[in-house]
Specification:
The complex is a heterodimer of chains A (about 450) and B (about 375). By secondary structure, chain A is α/β, with parallel strands linked by helices. Chain A has 17 helices and 12 strands. An 8-stranded parallel beta barrel of chain A has the order 1-2-3-4-5-6-7-8. Chain A has a two-stranded antiparallel ribbon with strand order 9-10. In chain A, strands 11-12 form a two-stranded parallel sheet. In chain A, helix 5 packs across helix 6. Chain A is globular. Helices cover about 45% and strands about 15% of the residues of chain B. In chain B, the strands form 4 sheets. Chain B has an 8-stranded mixed beta sheet. In chain B, strand 1 and strand 2 form a beta hairpin. The longest helix of chain B has 22 residues. Chain B is elongated, with a radius of gyration of 29 Å. Classes of the chains: A alpha/beta (about 450), B alpha+beta (about 375). At the A-B interface, helix 3, helix 5 and helix 10 of A face strand 4, helix 2, helix 7, helix 11 and helix 13 of B.
């Protein structure tokens, strides 16, 4: 199974100064920053997926600046993502439209033709047809039953677009693999969409709209889709939010999937922020220790504005927490003192009150338990990746982009090792298509 | 110690206030005064007046203050309603004694970001001027705060014009400073195709906005050809010539939409047109190695009948048809226009190379 990382400019400054909390001197945005495959020294994925909506286009505000978006298209994705060097130049570059960003519009802001132009000009190796998300998933209906008028309109629109997209993609033949996107309101309708896409001529399908579904619902859909198409047709799962359950998806013969989940969860999950391997097909999770920047954290600033806390006092608590964490890392502070300093600063953040007043609150008890586990296990000392080796305890501190994304990149590397392990499962459960990544290299 | 004492200079200003000035370290200022941030108590009564600190601003000031030649001539203004005793000595001097036994009695009225930065900076013995204002009541103090802080920021275009002449500015200004400098040269150099045409603080007759030209330069410096050019030994000159030659080509390609127009009457010299064409310049410079106006003009020729600078409609495709005047100087419209122009220019390059229609530009480039 190939793991494609859905990137949205997930770079860090390699010269970031963790003590002064600032970027390296004279740092130029993006140019001086590094991608996961640069900071780790290897790619923790088999390819990168870039959404048109992430780059930004007319009608959609992306994550890239306008000048970056223009450079991306001018020089191509491979150069922009810095995958144009030996050892990385075989990595796949997938594209999709980012259907969630325009899910509420009547129709996608992109046409199949301008999407092919976008993929072709930027040198994508694989690209998804222009789909339109269908909500209101109903696992109980069979075949083509059910489905609201709107769901059926989007179903037809997605298939019409796929047809036009496939035709437009012929101008790029030999250096580009078109992928037909499946949208449906039920396992049966998805299977039907898959069947029609194969009939159009697609041999690589991408299943969309999986993000809101439960793992069990996803499995059900994949099962029906698989049963409806020939075995040689490859399957990709778009935006695979259940990335951590990946081992249970092995039987469904998925060729590839994309996700940004291991990176995002480093700073969007409530407690599963730092990954370590935990036996075959398993991960162990730790909670990162929150020490936000007192003058920049919106929640703390709100408390200051309302006069609940003085900024100077929060800054003092913040400094103290950081100092003790670093001392603890050097074995110069004990667990109790370190935990107390961290909790004293977390109380305003978690419950909006001084620690003395809320020590026994449930929320604080839970935090105390999680942090104590993280600190006493010292997981960052058990990881050999370039990031953990380089920044030590900073990787587990939940604070601003440079620490949080580093932790996310560390997670990517742990995750990739897990995926590679899955490939060594019994051969009859594996789906290795040697030509998958061989094909698009031919033209290069 | 319960009192801090300073020798101060007083100024005769108002019958009802006392105003004086002395020097103190940041540490001491924070011992006799506090920053009273605006908030409300449980009954909803307003207290304090300062806004929250701004971390990035503080960091910039701190960076500056840590330089050995840093100076801070403007004072921190501290107001008192109590806790301060003034004894006149001779010649307009006086002795100020501040009672800090009940905590700091003064309130910082102006300079909280500077004071916070100083508190964090290394230079512990760095002194600042403190202007003291003694008020009769809290209400009077708040009035002074509003009066002192109700100043108008300088117009951006004036700051931009001044920037290139100022050294040692925070890093974020570097790109902007270069862009401002180059814009000024384009406006004043006798060899510039844009001579006298750019609206600057000192050239109000100019028709093209300086911000639009700067946007072109900044985008090119961050993500375009100038990033490479500017590092060459003669980099600044080459950047100047590139822009000058390019807009010369624009003027020669669309003479009737350029000359005699204002941003209102022609979208060509409007911010949207100027900025969008900047991306076309990048395209031609990269794929055709264009440098001179005639090379640029060759690439621009294909646009001649496909634009609606002064009338008609833009057809951006996908049903997006707009009246010529509907183009605004906002990022979204600039990008939309740029992509429309670029796709025509790319198709034209492809056709002129008479290569097979499917030969992608990127591949052609790497050949």
């Amino acid at each position: 199974m190939k793991f494609i990382f859905a990137d949205s400019l997930d770079v860090v400054d390699p010269n970031y100064d963790f003590i002064a909390d600032r970027n390296g001197p004279g740092r130029k945005v993006h140019w001086d920053d590094v991608y996961p495959h640069e900071i780790l020294g290897y790619a923790p994925y088999d390819g990168i997926l870039v959404s048109r909506a992430t780059v930004g286009d007319r009608g959609i505000k992306g994550k890239y600046t306008d000048a970056q978006a223009m450079r991306f298209q001018r020089l191509g994705a491979r150069v922009f993502l810095r995958l144009d060097r030996p050892g990385l130049d075989h990595l796949a570059i997938f594209g999709d439209c980012g259907a969630f960003s325009y899910a509420n519009e009547e129709k996608p802001p992109f046409t199949p033709e301008d999407t092919i132009e976008f993929y072709g000009h930027a040198g994508f190796t694989h690209g998804c047809s222009v789909d339109h998300i269908i909500f209101d998933h109903d696992p109980t209906v069979r075949g083509m039953d059910g489905g609201s008028d709107e769901a059926r309109r989007r179903f037809d629109l997605t298939l019409e677009n796929a047809d036009a997209f496939l035709r437009a993609s012929r101008t790029l033949s030999g250096r580009f693999t078109p992928m037909g996107v499946i949208q449906g309101w039920s396992p049966g309708s998805m299977a039907e969409a898959a069947r029609r896409l194969v009939a159009m001529g697609y041999d690589y399908l991408a299943v969309g709209g999986m993000v809101p579904l439960q793992a069990e619902q996803i499995r059900h859909c994949l099962q029906e889709i698989r049963a409806a198409i020939p075995t040689n047709v490859r399957l990709h799962v778009l935006g695979f939010a259940k990335a951590n359950d990946i081992s249970s998806f092995v039987p469904y013969d998925i060729t590839s999937f994309d996700t940004s989940s291991p990176l995002i969860r480093a700073f969007k999950d409530k407690k599963q922020n730092y990954y370590l391997p935990d036996g075959p097909g398993k991960l162990r999770y730790y909670t990162a220790v929150r020490v936000p920047q007192s003058l920049e954290n919106l929640q703390l600033q709100r408390l200051v504005k309302k006069g609940v806390f003085r900024a100077e006092d929060l800054t003092r608590l913040e400094r103290n927490a950081l100092a003790l964490l670093r001392a603890y890392d050097r074995h110069e502070a004990d667990l109790g003192d370190t935990l107390a300093a961290v909790l004293a600063y977390n109380a305003p953040l978690a419950v909006g009150r001084p620690y003395e007043d809320c020590r026994s609150d449930k929320a604080m008890q839970v935090l105390s338990q999680q942090y104590s586990e993280t600190l006493s296990d010292r997981p960052w000392k058990r990881c050999n990746c370039a990031i953990c080796k380089d920044v030590s305890i900073e990787v587990i501190i939940f604070r601003a982009s440079n620490r949080n994304k580093r932790r996310g990149i560390h997670n990517l590397s742990v995750y990739k090792a897990l995926i590679d392990q899955l490939d060594s499962f019994p051969a009859d459960l594996r789906n290795d298509s040697p030509d998958l990544f061989g094909r698009q290299c031919a033209a290069e | 110690m319960t009192h801090l004492t300073y020798l101060a200079v007083s100024a005769r200003q108002s019958e009802t206030h006392k105003v004086l000035c002395f020097a103190a370290t940041a540490e001491d200022v924070l011992r006799f005064s506090s920053i009273d941030r605006i908030g409300r108590d449980d009954e909803g009564r307003l207290s304090g007046f300062q806004r929250p600190q701004i971390a990035s601003h503080i960091r910039e000031i701190k960076d500056y203050l840590e330089k050995p030649d840093a100076v801070l001539p403007n004072p921190i203004v501290v107001a008192f309603t109590r806790g301060v005793a003034i004894t006149p000595t001779e010649g307009g001097l006086c002795r100020v004694s501040i009672d800090i036994s009940d905590g700091p009695p003064g309130l910082v009225v102006d300079g909280q970001q500077r004071l916070t930065a100083l508190g964090q900076a290394e230079a512990r013995d760095f002194q600042v001027f403190v202007s003291v204002l003694v008020c009769q009541s809290e209400a009077e103090l708040r009035r002074q705060f509003v009066l002192i802080n109700n100043t108008r920021p300088l117009p951006k275009s004036l700051i931009y014009e001044l920037l290139p002449t100022v050294d040692g500015l925070p890093h974020r200004f570097e790109g902007r400073s270069f862009a401002a400098d180059l814009t000024a040269r384009l406006n004043h150099d006798k060899n510039s195709s844009l001579k006298g045409q750019i609206n600057q603080h000192t050239n109000p007759e100019g028709k093209i906005s300086d911000a639009a030209i700067q946007r072109v330069i900044l985008a090119s410096l961050s993500d375009g050809i100038m990033r490479d050019l500017v590092r060459k030994p003669n980099g600044e000159r080459e950047c100047f010539e590139l822009i000058s030659e390019f807009y010369e080509a624009v003027q020669k390609t669309f003479p009737s939409e350029w000359w005699g127009h204002t941003a209102r009457s022609s979208r060509l010299i409007h911010g949207a047109g100027i900025s969008a064409l900047g991306y076309v310049m990048e395209e031609l410079a990269l794929y055709e190695g264009a440098k001179s106006w005639s090379q640029f003009a060759k690439g621009l020729g294909c646009l001649r009948d496909r634009t609606a600078w002064t009338g008609g409609e833009w057809n951006f495709g996908g049903g997006d048809v707009r009246h010529w005047k509907a183009l605004q100087n906002v990022n979204r419209d600039i990008v939309t226009l740029a992509q429309y122009l670029i796709s025509i220019v790319r198709a034209d390059i492809r056709a002129r190379r008479s290569a097979a229609a499917e030969t992608p530009l990127l591949d052609a480039l790497s050949d």
